[in-house]
Design a protein that fits this description.
The protein is an alpha+beta fold. The protein has 3 domains: 84 residues, Uridine Diphospho-n-acetylenolpyruvylglucosamine Reductase, domain 2, CATH 3.30.43.10; 131 residues, Uridine Diphospho-n-acetylenolpyruvylglucosamine Reductase, domain 3 (2-Layer Sandwich); 65 residues, Alpha-Beta Complex (Uridine Diphospho-n-acetylenolpyruvylglucosamine Reductase, domain 1). Helix content is 27%, strand content 27%. It contains 7 helices and 17 strands. It is globular. The chain starts with a helix and ends with a strand.
Length: 307
């Protein structure tokens, strides 16, 4: 099926207003890198998502699901088929008693948005995630974490959809959380919403203080002055990856517009005109040098999409 036919179906048959053809993925990733998506669609409801999946499956069209694009590197040739950005953002809060609150957040809710809503309700336990530039869907998928907290510690259950449009609800245990990993990275399951169990405090001042402290720490220790996809490499089982990269003398090393950050060696940044090829060549160079010097294999934390 031709791109214009897909575009017309999305706008005319499904009534979707936010559809783009040949859309640069650099507009939708924090790395500001990436070729074009044949069709880019924002799905603002589960019903629209299901309709898109049914249409794509019946016409043998590839589908790629993204959230806030903060952990992605899209290759220079872009992504074929339909890219669907999950854009449903409802938040429900129920105070179970004086100490605990149940929070249900849809996949498109950004972590910063949810953190600000929770602090107004005197709800704590989410401060670690407040400065992570992602969405709930992406954060659960990769078991995002910072400052001693991880999503596995607060997730109760997650509602998801398989590629046939069937809805499933997985418990915390069924989501198979591990370091920067979950079942959603293994199976074709799309996160729709997640239920969290959090705490209630007497006032919001201490919650705000912790959030501000974590934000200041992030500003001081991470390269926020350049686009990136967050931490590029996973922590090793018995080593700190950034330290090994630094010990190889690679901090500040560049290929094209991609650079090992001078602030934190665990980050690859876009100094302004980086291509995905620059980033991947730099990543491979870093991997080779670390293995050559220390005999350690390092793994990507970011997800690479496209062709």
């Amino acid at each position: 099926m031709q791109k214009d036919e897909i575009y017309n179906y999305c706008t005319e048959n499904l009534g979707i207003t936010d559809v783009k053809m040949d859309e640069p993925m650099s507009n939708h990733t924090s790395f500001k890198i990436g070729g074009t998506a044949d069709i880019f669609v924002k799905a603002d409801s589960v019903e629209i998502l299901k309709s898109l999946l049914e249409f794509a499956k019946s016409n043998d069209i590839d589908v790629t699901i993204i959230g806030n694009g903060s952990n992605l590197l899209v290759k220079d040739n872009g992504i074929r088929g339909i890219v669907i950005k999950l854009d449903f953002k409802d938040i429900k809060i129920e105070k179970l008693d004086d100490k605990r609150a149940k929070v249900i957040a849809e996949a498109g809710v950004t972590l910063g948005m949810l953190a600000q809503r929770l602090v107004k309700e005197n709800i704590s336990g989410f401060e670690f995630a407040a400065a992570i530039p992602g969405s709930i869907g992406g954060a659960v998928r990769m078991n995002a974490g910072a400052y001693g907290g991880e999503f596995k510690d607060i997730v109760v259950k997650t509602k998801c959809m398989d590629e046939d449009g069937n809805i499933k609800v997985l418990t915390n245990e069924e989501q198979k959380f591990s370091y920067r990993h979950s079942i959603f990275a293994e199976e074709k399951l799309i996160i729709l919403e997640t239920e969290l169990l959090l705490n209630i405090e007497d006032n919001s001042d201490e919650i705000r203080r912790r959030m501000a402290e974590y934000l200041e720490s992030r500003k001081a220790k991470q390269p926020l002055n350049y686009p990136s996809a967050g931490s590029t490499f996973k922590r090793g089982a018995d080593f700190i990856t950034a330290k090994l990269i630094d010990d190889c003398g690679l901090k500040g090393f560049s290929i094209g517009g991609a650079q090992v950050s001078e602030v934190h060696a665990g980050f690859v940044v876009n100094t302004g005109n980086a291509t995905a090829e620059d980033v991947l060549n730099l990543v491979n160079h870093v991997k080779e040098k670390v293995f050559e010097k220390f005999g350690k294999e390092i793994e990507l934390e970011i997800e690479v999409l496209g062709e």
